[in-house]
């Protein structure tokens, strides 16, 4: 069990380009932290620096308060699951899992090794595959063997490098819950790298969002979703992604492509002097006014729906719009940063499944302006972020995490006592 | 691939493969047939069947001649020379090339490209161009007609080849395998011994076979840099004389040819799949 | 020697290197160095020495008479009709064997690629000639064609219903000798060619061929417009390797004719000058000329046909 601290970590490659730039992160004992970002954001590099496969150019890496920058990977007592699992093809499943134990010569008796491997294989339901070679296993089974190898090591922390990216969608969902359950059960500090924001949101106690080697925001999934610090985080978290609309400012009114919103409070001060701002609206916060009840201060507007997708439990509507030239470049840049395809801008609305809107209809839509985010088009900063609320969410999440960990430990102890 | 081949095409391909196999096999059977002919049958077509191809009466006289008879003092030492020289040069070059290829595939250091390019360029050298200076030099420093005098040029033959094939093999081993071992708590040496070595063993083995075969096949160096004390089989074959001065040594040569060919053919056939991948991986983009 | 190389390796870098990166470089050269140095010693040194010796008039039997003659050896060689005769012979062998091997090798590769039965047997048998020692294959073809011991004349006699002369001497003339030399060479090396081509064929995506089939391409069009362009790399490498091998041909003609009837090749001429006539200076000059011919061919292929030889093994 251990605490991992990253202090001003920098990674520069031969050409001087910083792949990771000044990242500081404090990971508490037993915490599940996700490193997330689009491809090339430096998340894997950061993980590989923690495990010791990559040199740290500057900054300090501390495990349980001890600086480990110069320690070899094997001396850091960490376990890692690789993206392609890195199973040893010449060894059976049993020997693959036993591999780390056998390396510690003389420390474990044959009997002990067998017990530990069986314990891990039991937990991962691999018992009937122990004599097989990795090449005969399915993707999910290989993934579990890789986890088994990590478990027996009784490491101080688990590191995962995009462990689910080679699995199909259904299996990915199953393994995701499996990893979450295992982490809680073992109560082990975990760092998990992914580019998939769904994995980030569902697994993490806290999520660190990276962009081009720079840490954008570290927060609980809920805080990231409700109180993102900037355009990038707001656009990255949530599926379908947040809509970004250009809005002209005139006094306390924002002119959106389809609607007008009156703003109040200190937001008026913040947007003062700006010609345009970017308004962020989550698809699920826009409602079909004809079938759903909306708050009385809701902003109503009508728009022609270009395309709809009915999924049974929900429905998406797509409404194209023309971005203001003043913010067009900014939005294009954001699109590129988020690995977008550079499509024509469109408003995505997540409608209730009961809604009868079909393509070509002029839909009657509404949203609650309190749920709207306003971003500075130059810096990308979120002008509507409420720090007090954010702090409250952080506190609640931390309390919840402790409770869950406590409960898992108790349950484990009870199970141990019964057995 | 097989699924979209129609029955008609299948049959035609099967038929087409017959002449290929016959064309390949005839010279081989011919060597065997000649080695089994008696001295009299060699020059007399009436004692053979199938148009002077196969002997009516097979005899092992030729084999006796090269092992215990008149040609034995030429063939038996040559066989030993071949085995010693080829084994030693193979072992040396494979060991050196294994380290070299491991470094090329695994480590980041300047000059990797230079090594590979040099290896390739060297294998294009006309060996005969090396013979002239070596002949002169060996005579001066006393390496002419010695086993080391043959082992050294054989390194020139086998090293580039081994470096090239082994680099290709090492590059096929996933890099993460070794990193995983390190994270699992292995030292560099443990990672090499427990993970990389078992995975690379087939590649090293294949390279050894190819290198051994290249040395075994050499005629240029052996015929020009040796006379009696280090002559290998291919060169010895060329210097065979018959039982008497006026008799052609045809049968003895063929018997010796069969003897030196059989082990190599067996080796190549046993490991054919690996050898094919070894031969092609270095040359063709894999 | 190795530490020298390591030193030059590290001084060339500009950026500050971490200890591990520096250690990696040192280790890299420590591991790769010995093989590299030995390779250079046993190959580059003789070549350099040959270039040096080629500038002298030097007979081994008369070391005292060694005299610096600059390029006179080259001049003598290049104006000597014997040189041009061996050059022509070598050239003929290269072109003939290459054309036949390419066509045959391609045909065999295509059969091997698609054949269902006898797939394994075919792939195995085709490898055998490759594993035969060149000298042995030379003898096999020599004995097969010789009047006294051979079966060629007998078989041809049967196939031509008696028209073929049973006493035909294959090694009595230049062209018939070259025919047997080429046949032997083709037999021995076509397997290697077809293996390289098979590896290239295996890389051609079969769905591409199917798409061409759907697009209405005939068999020949599919072969010419889809398969060949997509295996160009393998084709070029195979042709280059074979050309360079064929230019250096020595064993086969040495065994069969010993150079009689104008069948001497360049390599044989080099050996003849050096070993039999102990004209070290002239032999070296010829060796250098041969080396330059090989270099030119390699250069033409790598530049002219854009053969990327390092592509297969370039780092990650």
TrEMBL record, chain A:
Start and end of every ABC transporter domain? 4-237
Renumbered to this chain, the Basic and acidic residues biased-composition regions fall at: 383-399
> GO CC terms on record?
ATP-binding cassette (ABC) transporter complex, substrate-binding subunit-containing
Which is an annotated GO molecular function term of this record? ATP binding
Give any single GO term for biological process. carbohydrate transport
**InterPro entries, per database record:** AAA+_ATPase, ABC_transporter-like_ATP-bd, ABC_transporter-like_CS, ABC_transpr_MalK-like, ABC_transpr_MalK/UgpC-like, Mo/tungstate-bd_C_term_dom, OB_MalK-like, P-loop_NTPase
Q: Which SUPFAM superfamilies match?
A: MOP-like, P-loop containing nucleoside triphosphate hydrolases
Q: Which UniProt keywords apply?
A: ATP-binding, Cell membrane, Hydrolase, Membrane, Nucleotide-binding, Translocase, Transport
Instruction: State the EC number(s).
Output: 3.6.3.-
In residue numbers, the region (Disordered) covers 378-399
**Could you list the residue ranges forming a coiled coil in this record?**
none
EC class: hydrolase
Q: Which domain of life is it from?
A: Bacteria
Name assigned to this protein: Maltodextrin import ATP-binding protein msmX
Starting at the broadest rank, the lineage of the source organism is: Bacteria, Bacillati, Actinomycetota, Actinomycetes, Micrococcales
Gene label: msmX
UniProtKB/TrEMBL annotation, chain B:
Question: Sorted alphabetically, which Pfam families does this protein's record hold?
Answer: BPD_transp_1 (PF00528)
Domain of life (superkingdom): Bacteria
Does the keyword Transmembrane belong to this entry? yes
Where does this one sit in the cell? Cell membrane
Q: Which GO biological-process labels does this protein carry? A: transmembrane transport
> Where would I find the ABC transmembrane type-1 domain in this sequence?
79-271
Q: What is its main location?
A: membrane
Q: How does the protein associate with the membrane? A: Multi-pass membrane protein
Q: What residues form the membrane-spanning segments?
A: 12-33, 78-102, 114-138, 150-170, 195-216, 250-271
Alphabetic keyword roster: Cell membrane, Membrane, Transmembrane, Transmembrane helix, Transport
Entry GO CC: plasma membrane
User: Which family does this protein fall into?
Assistant: Belongs to the binding-protein-dependent transport system permease family.
This chain's protein is named Carbohydrate ABC transporter membrane protein
From TrEMBL, chain C:
> Could you name the domain of life of the organism this protein comes from?
Bacteria
Instruction: Kindly state which keywords UniProt assigns to this record, in alphabetical order.
Output: Cell membrane, Membrane, Transmembrane, Transmembrane helix, Transport
Q: What GO terms fall under cellular component here?
A: plasma membrane
User: Is Cell membrane one of the keywords UniProt gives this record?
Assistant: yes
Source organism per UniProt: Nostocoides japonicum T1-X7
Task: Please state what the protein is called.
Answer: Carbohydrate ABC transporter membrane protein
SUPFAM superfamilies named among the record's database cross-references = MetI-like
Per the UniProt record, one Pfam family is BPD_transp_1
Where in or outside the cell is it found?
Cell membrane
Concerning its family, UniProt says: Belongs to the binding-protein-dependent transport system permease family.
Where does it mainly reside? membrane
> What GO biological process terms does the UniProt entry carry, in alphabetical order?
transmembrane transport
Which regions span the lipid bilayer? 31-52, 82-112, 124-144, 280-302
The membrane topology term of the UniProt record is: Multi-pass membrane protein
Domain named ABC transmembrane type-1: which ranges?
Answer: 87-301
Q: Which PANTHER family match?
A: BLR7065 PROTEIN, SPERMIDINE_PUTRESCINE TRANSPORT SYSTEM PERMEASE PROTEIN
CDD domains given in the database record:
TM_PBP2
Xref: Gene3D superfamilies: MetI-like
**What PROSITE patterns does its record include?**
ABC_TM1
């Amino acid at each position: 069990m251990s605490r991992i601290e990253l202090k001003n970590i920098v990674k520069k490659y031969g050409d001087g380009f910083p792949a990771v730039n000044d990242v500081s992160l404090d990971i508490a004992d037993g915490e599940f932290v996700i490193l997330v970002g689009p491809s090339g954001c430096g998340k894997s590099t950061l993980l590989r620096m923690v495990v010791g496969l990559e040199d740290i150019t500057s900054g300090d890496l501390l495990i349980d308060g001890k600086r480990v920058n110069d320690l070899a990977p094997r001396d850091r007592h960490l376990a890692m699951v690789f993206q392609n699992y890195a199973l040893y093809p010449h060894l059976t499943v049993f020997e693959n899992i036993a591999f780390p134990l056998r390396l510690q010569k003389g420390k474990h008796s044959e009997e002990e090794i067998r017990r530990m491997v069986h314990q891990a294989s039991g937990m991962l339901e691999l018992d009937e595959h122990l004599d097989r070679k990795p090449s005969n296993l399915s993707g999910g089974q290989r993934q579990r063997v890789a986890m088994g190898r990590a478990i027996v090591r009784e490491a101080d922390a688990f590191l995962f490098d995009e462990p689910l990216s080679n699995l199909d969608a259904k299996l990915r969902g199953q393994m995701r819950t499996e990893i979450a359950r295992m982490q809680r059960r073992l109560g082990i500090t975990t760092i998990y790298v992914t580019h998939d924001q769904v994995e980030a949101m569902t697994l993490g106690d806290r999520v660190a969002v990276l962009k081009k080697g720079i840490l954008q925001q570290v927060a609980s999934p809920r805080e990231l979703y409700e109180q993102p610090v900037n355009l990038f985080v707001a656009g990255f978290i949530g599926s379908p992604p947040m809509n970004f609309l250009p809005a002209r400012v005139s006094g306390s009114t924002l002119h959106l492509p389809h609607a007008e919103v009156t703003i109040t409070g200190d937001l008026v001060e913040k947007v003062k002097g700006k010609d345009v701002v970017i308004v962020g609206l989550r698809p699920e916060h826009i409602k079909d006014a004809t079938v759903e009840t909306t708050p009385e201060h809701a902003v109503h507007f009508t728009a022609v729906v270009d395309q709809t997708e009915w999924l049974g439990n929900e429905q998406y509507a797509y409404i194209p719009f023309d971005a203001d030239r003043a913010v067009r470049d900014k939005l294009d840049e954001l699109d590129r940063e988020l690995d977008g395809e550079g499509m024509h801008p469109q408003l995505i609305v997540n409608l209730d499944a009961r809604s009868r809107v079909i393509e070509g209809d002029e839909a009657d839509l509404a949203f609650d302006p309190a749920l709207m985010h306003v971003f500075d088009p130059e810096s990308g900063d979120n002008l509507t972020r409420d720090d007090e609320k954010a702090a409250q969410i952080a506190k609640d999440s931390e309390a919840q995490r402790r409770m869950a960990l406590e409960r898992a430990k108790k349950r484990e102890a009870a199970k141990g006592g019964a057995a | 691939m097989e699924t979209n081949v129609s029955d008609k095409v299948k049959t035609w391909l099967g038929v087409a493969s017959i002449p290929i196999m016959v064309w390949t096999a005839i010279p081989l059977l011919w060597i065997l047939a000649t080695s089994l002919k008696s001295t009299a049958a060699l020059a007399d077509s009436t004692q053979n069947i199938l148009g002077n191809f196969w002997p009516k009466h097979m005899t092992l006289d030729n084999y006796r001649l090269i092992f215990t008879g008149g040609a034995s003092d030429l063939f038996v030492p040559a066989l030993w020379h071949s085995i010693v020289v080829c084994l030693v040069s193979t072992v040396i070059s494979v060991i050196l090339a294994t380290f070299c290829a491991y470094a090329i595939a695994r480590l980041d250091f300047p000059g990797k490209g230079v090594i590979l390019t040099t290896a390739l360029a060297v294998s294009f050298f006309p060996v005969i161009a090396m013979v002239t200076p070596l002949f002169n030099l060996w005579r001066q420093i006393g390496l002419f007609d010695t086993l080391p005098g043959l082992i050294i040029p054989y390194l020139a033959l086998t090293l580039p080849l081994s470096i090239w094939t082994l680099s290709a093999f090492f590059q096929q081993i996933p890099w993460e395998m070794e990193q995983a071992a390190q994270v699992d708590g292995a030292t560099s040496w443990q990672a090499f011994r427990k993970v990389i070595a078992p995975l690379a063993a087939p590649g090293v083995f294949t390279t050894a076979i190819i290198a051994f075969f290249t040395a075994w096949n050499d005629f240029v160096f052996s015929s020009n840099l040796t006379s009696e004390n280090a002559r290998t089989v291919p060169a010895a074959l060329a210097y065979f004389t018959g039982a008497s001065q006026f008799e052609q040594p045809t049968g003895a040569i063929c018997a010796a040819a069969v003897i030196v060919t059989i082990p190599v053919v067996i080796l190549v056939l046993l490991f054919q799949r690996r050898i094919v991948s070894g031969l092609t991986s270095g040359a063709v983009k894999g | 020697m190795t530490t020298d190389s390591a030193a030059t390796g590290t001084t060339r870098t500009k950026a500050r290197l971490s200890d591990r990166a520096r250690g990696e470089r040192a280790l890299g050269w420590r591991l790769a160095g010995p093989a590299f140095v030995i390779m250079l010693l046993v190959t580059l040194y003789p070549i350099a020495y040959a270039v040096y010796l080629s500038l002298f008039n030097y007979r081994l039997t008369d070391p005292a008479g060694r005299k610096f003659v600059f390029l006179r050896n080259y001049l003598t060689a290049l104006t000597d009709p014997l040189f041009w005769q061996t050059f022509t012979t070598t050239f003929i062998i290269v072109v003939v064997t290459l054309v036949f091997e390419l066509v045959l090798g391609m045909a065999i590769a295509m059969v091997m690629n698609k054949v269902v039965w006898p797939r394994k047997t075919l792939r195995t048998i085709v490898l055998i000639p490759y594993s035969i020692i060149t000298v042995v294959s030379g003898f096999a073809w020599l004995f097969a064609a010789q009047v006294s011991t051979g079966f060629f004349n007998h078989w041809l006699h049967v196939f031509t219903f008696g028209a073929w002369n049973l006493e035909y001497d294959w090694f009595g003339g230049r062209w018939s000798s070259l025919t047997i030399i080429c046949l032997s060479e083709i037999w021995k090396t076509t397997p290697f060619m077809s293996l390289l081509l098979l590896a290239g064929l295996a890389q051609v995506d079969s769905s591409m061929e199917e798409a061409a089939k759907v697009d209405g391409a005939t068999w020949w069009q599919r072969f010419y417009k889809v398969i060949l362009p997509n295996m160009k790399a393998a084709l070029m490498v195979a042709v280059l390797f074979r050309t360079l091998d064929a230019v250096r041909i020595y064993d086969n003609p040495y065994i069969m004719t010993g150079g009689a009837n104008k069948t001497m090749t360049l390599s044989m001429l080099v050996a003849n000058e050096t070993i039999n006539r102990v004209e070290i200076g002239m032999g070296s000059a010829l060796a250098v000329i041969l080396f330059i011919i090989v270099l030119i061919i390699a250069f033409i292929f790598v530049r002219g046909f854009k053969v990327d030889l390092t592509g297969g093994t370039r780092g990650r």
